[in-house]
Design brief:
The protein is about 40% helix and about 10% strand. It is an alpha+beta fold and about 290 residues long. Strand 6 and strand 7 form a beta hairpin. It is elongated, with a radius of gyration of 27 Å. About 30% of the residues are buried.
Amino acid sequence: MTIVMAAIILFGLTLIFATLLGVAKEILRVDEDPRIEQINEVLPSANCGGCGFAGCADFAKAVVEGKAPCDGCPVGGAETAADVAAILGIEVVQTAPFRPIVHCGAKTQDKLGVVPYEGIETCVGANIVGVTQACAYGCLGYSDCVRACTFDALHMVEGRPVVDYDKCTGCGACVKACPRDLIELIPFKEERMLVVACANKESAKAVKAVCKVGCIGCKLCQRFAPDVFEVPGNIADINYEKYTGEETEEVKKVLDKCPAEILLYFGRPKLKHAEQLAAEKAATSRN
């Protein structure tokens, strides 16, 4: 009899607690905005973190809460931004996509004072050691950025990372991976953008001692195209807020007069440039 009573009491308490939990759930329930799930469904599900959030679901929530822009998904691009804007009932303002560039154009044969390195073959490890090459600003070449890219858009070519812009989504994983901050995301206002492929801030003499193609801080670029180029120290810099990507006469003059070889174009070449590159490659192969 005691056992039966205990069972009845226990069953009764279970019903009471279940009822209380059900009531509490209804009282404390916070209805999620249905737009969050709708936005999450139109996102590419890459979960790359390029938007600045842990994943697509977090980004969708942030967009609805006004904490992230509707065009903040670098992988989805303009099409996804338009879909998100439609869900929110707003008009999206199209902006130039951000893509990575590399501030080191030195190939293996251009780097002077390279020291044999037998440590862990990562850029982070080599950077800690700090004696693997004479240039303290150049690419270390151990492919941390390549491994960080989940889209197979980066490859090491002749000792430097080269971006495949047909695959690149601008997620920024390579930017975070570089211990020397040599990779930067810039607005690609054109398919092909000019880049200062050097980060060495030392004097001209010091640069020449460690690299064959480093910037010597001569300021010719600033003199010929002051709206585009600045030389705040010993290293040239391009003002991407003012630089439109167009090959103006001033920019052409800079390319013609620059004594170094660190002003490079990154991105997809325009048709006329592609034809020129093909012709140059064919001429080289014949020789």
